[in-house]
Amino acid sequence: MSFQKDLPLTNHLFSGIWQNSPDNFFILEVCGEDFRFVGINPAQERVLNLTNSEVEGTNLRDMIEPDFYDFVTRNYRRCLQEQRSIQYEEEEAFTSEEIRWWSTMLNPIRDDEGNIRYIYGISRNITELKRSQIQYQEAAKAAEEANRVKTNFLANMSHEMRTPLNGIAGAANLILNSNNPEETLELAALISQSADALTHLTQDILEYAKIGVGKLTLEPDSFDFHQAIDSVYRLLLPQAQNKNIEFTLTLEPQVPRYLFADGQRIKQVLLNLVGNAVKFTEQGGVNLQVRVIDSDSAQAHIEIQVQDTGIGIKEEHFDKLFKPFSQVDDSKTKQYEGTGLGLAISKSIVDLMDGEISMSSQIGQGSVFTVNCAIALGQPEIKEDIADQQLHGHFLIVEDNSVNQIILKKLLLKHGAQVTVVANGQEALAACQTTDFDMVLMDWHMPVMDGFEATRQIRQQLDHYHKVPIIGVTANVIDSETDHHLQAGMNDVLTKPIRRDELVPKLYEWLYLNDID
């Protein structure tokens, strides 16, 4: 006897829904402790890979595995026990190689005596919906964690920046009220140290900002690798000595002296790794070892290893090390200061060099950081030291900040330059109309007329300024504006804070060595 032909449920409307619905329909007869298939629709046939005629009249226990049987019948029995319609969601991997989710509604059907004789079920595949919900929940959780980490990072940065700022402000105030030359020199040295610390902090932030927008680049050139290693050692040796820890350098003789790569970036990685090792080591020592794994006539596979006997890192914190804004200890009572960006920046630099950076550590015993990279061989290059050269020319400084005006002017005057200072782009254009300057130092963000517009107008209106170097001077190194200086007509860019050993060589090169077409 066919269920669909004999029961009122098989009217025309139900038959159409039964045949065409994408949801799984099934009807089970209650048979004591088991359930017998009365009918399944085509959608359910596709899930079970069985036809309605193959399952009709078959006990459920005889058709499916015991685990799957127990899985599906627990809700069937709940429907019988509660004697009402129930709806539920469940996750299963019995009918597919991957996990699927189903939303199911069970309806009890009673006979003339009021006893539940059948269960009518509708089951909908909600796998895609569930996956979307899970992805959303994971994304929301990740966003919440990222926001927490960034909030902690900003709070930490505020503390880190206020410390040197406090040193600068306090020492400057004491200098203004000091008549003791020895004390003044001591306070000036403190200001310089605090300024260096503040500069390092801001550089870390700006470097990572460059990474975030894909602006971190390498500038390969031949450089003295041995000298770079030695300078890192000499720079950090006093810090190790102040902590009474040993700091050793092992530079194997097979390591080539000259490499072709971005020497400043390699030095930056070394300073981050060795600086961390010294900072987190209270007893024992730090060893910087550089060796060659293999080499040929074109390149050398260099391994740099930094080993310390410091506090070590717990294994559960390993994944934080190379992530931005993450610190192993970001509590308010943390013992060691820092931004948490150094290792993230170092990894990005090593990645750009197609190298690898790895680490191992044991809590209380120390850590080992290893950099492996294939680097092209370089050639010795003789460069004239021009940091102390005289700048015999008339310079126009275009700068709205009075402090920056004073600093730039004094730096140039010390190197023999003649200097004129104006406060905005409009004044710069007027000055260039009446005076032939040898070079223009142009700030970008100024009132009345900014540096971009002033540069464009100088180039367009004044023919005799087509070959005069215009150097941008800015604190902005991450915006898209850094790509616009050439379009505006500038020749190069200097970033603040301005340092003499960077300023003088660049100005000397543009004044005497570089040709402007």
* CATH level 1 class label of the largest domain: Alpha Beta
Distance between the termini: 97 Å
In total, the number of domains comes to 4
The CATH topology of the largest domain, please?
Heat Shock Protein 90
Name the CATH architecture of the largest domain. 2-Layer Sandwich
The unreliable regions are 328-336
In DSSP terms (H or I, runs of 4 or more residues), the helix count works out at: 16
Structural class: alpha/beta
CATH H-tier superfamily of the largest domain: Histidine kinase-like ATPase, C-terminal domain
Helix content: 40-55%
Task: Specify Rg, calculated over alpha carbons.
Answer: 37 Å
Number of strands: 17
Q: Into which percentage range does the β-strand content fall? A: 15-25%
Mean pLDDT: 84
Note the main sheet: 7 strands, mixed
**Shape summary:** elongated
Can you describe this structure?
- Helix content is 44%, strand content 23%.
- By secondary structure, the protein is of the alpha/beta class.
- The chain folds into four domains: 3-125, Beta-Lactamase (2-Layer Sandwich), CATH 3.30.450; 132-212, Signal transduction histidine kinase, dimerisation/phosphotransfer (DHp) domain (Helix Hairpins), CATH 1.10.287.130; 221-377, Histidine kinase-like ATPase, C-terminal domain (Heat Shock Protein 90); 394-513, 3-Layer(aba) Sandwich (Rossmann fold).
- Strands 6, 7, 8, 9, 10, 11 and 12 form a seven-stranded mixed sheet that branches.
- Helix 8 (181-212) crosses helix 11 and helix 13 (425-434) packs parallel to helix 14.
- The protein is elongated.
- The chain starts with a helix and ends with a helix.
- Mean pLDDT is 84; it is low at 328-336.
